[in-house]
Amino acid sequence: MTPLQIGELEQRDFWGDETWRKWKGEMDALLARRKSFKGRPDEIEVALLKSDAQAIEAYKFLLFHSVMLGVDECACPRCAKKRQARKSPLKAYT
Questions:
Q1: In the chain, how many domains are there?
Q2: pLDDT tens digit string along 44-82?
Q3: Domain containing residue 87
Q4: Rg of the chain over CA atoms, in angstroms?
Q5: What torsion do the CA atoms of 72, 73, 76, 77 make, to the nearest 10 degrees?
Q6: 68-72 contacts: CB < 8 A, separation 24 or more?
């Protein structure tokens, strides 16, 4: 099993299958809306895309985070950011 699948199973068990499916549907709707924009977006669409991106990241954390695997192996976006921050060469100099 992949880390993403392990996180999915953990979160389905924690939140319940019905809630997990509802949130997954909401995340899929946000992803579909993001792809529906054609051409160069105006200021309002850019703001909407930015807020949607934050919501999608939150949904990915809620739906796919693995407590069992920990930060080093979890596939959710927040754990990936924490790993990248630790590995940044600039951190050694600040």
A1: 1
A2: 989 999 999 999 999 998 898 888 887 778 877 888 777
A3: 3-93
A4: 16
A5: 40
A6: 68/6, 68/10, 69/3, 69/6, 69/7
